[in-house]
Amino acid sequence: MGIFSHRIASLLTKHGKEAVMTPDLLALTGCDVKHTDAYDTDQLGTFTREIPRHGTQLDAARKKALMGMKLLNTDLGIANEGAFVGDPYTGMLPWNNEVVMLIDQLHQIEIIGFSGAPAQSASGYFSHWEELEAFAETALFPSHHLVIKPTDEHHPESIKGIYDLSALQEAFQWAIAQSSTGVAFVENDLRAFANPTRMENIHKATVDLANKMNSACPQCQTPGYWVKDIQRGLPCNACGLPTEQAIAKIWGCLKCTHQETEGMKVLQFADPSKCSYCNP
C-alpha cells in the first residue's frame, strides 16, 4: 500500500473520533492506528468557551498529534481539530472545517486532510420551556446533544451532553434558577461524539488524508503529493479579460521542487456573470 503500511500511528482523542478515523486509515493506507485518551484534550480549548484555544486550528492539531506520539512512543501521529465559522459563500450559515493531520517523524513530513461542510451549530436564549422544546427539534435533538448555561454563553457553569428530554427539562430549570436574567442559553454540543453531523465531516477529512497519504511524488516518491495551488484566469466570453475562474490545478511535492500543471476540464470561456469587468 505504501510507506505507511503496517506502521503504528497514535491518535489522541477523548471524544470517540477513533470510530470514524481508524477503520478507513487501516483499510486505505494499511496504517495501524492506536487510540489513547491519556491526556485531556479539552485543556487545549473548548467549544463552550471555558478554555480558549491558543494558536491556529493547525497548531492545535499538531499539539495533539505530538502528545499522542509521546504517550504511545510512536514516530507517526494523527490528530483532528475542528472549527466552526460562517459559511464560505455568504458567511451567514454555520459551517464546520475539520483538519486531520498526520506527522511522520521518520520522513519529516506533515500531511493534512481537510473537509468543510454545513454544520449543525444552533443556539438561542430561552425563558420558557415551550420555546426551548421547539428549538430542540430544530437543533436535531436528541441525536445531536445540547449544552445549557445560565444567563448567556459566557457563564462559567454549564451542563453538557444533554441527550434526552427529561434531562433537558431538568437542566433548563437549573439554568433558569441560576440565571441573573431569568434566561438560559442553549446550543448544540459541538464535541464529536455529541454531534453526528460533525463526526461525518471528520470522517470525510480522514478519507482526504488517506488519499493524500497514498499519493506519492513522481520525482522523489514522498507521500502527500497533492494540489497546492489553483491557476485562475479563464477569459470572459464577452470582453476577453481574465476572470477568477480556474483553468488549472498545480500539483506539488512536500519535499522536492517537483510540480505539475493539470488543465481543468472547463469551458473555453467564462460566463460574463463571473467577470468583474462585465459584472462588477
TrEMBL record:
Residues 64-280 form the DUF6671 domain. InterPro entries: DUF6671 (IPR046612). Pfam families: DUF6671. This is DUF6671 domain-containing protein. It comes from Polynucleobacter antarcticus.
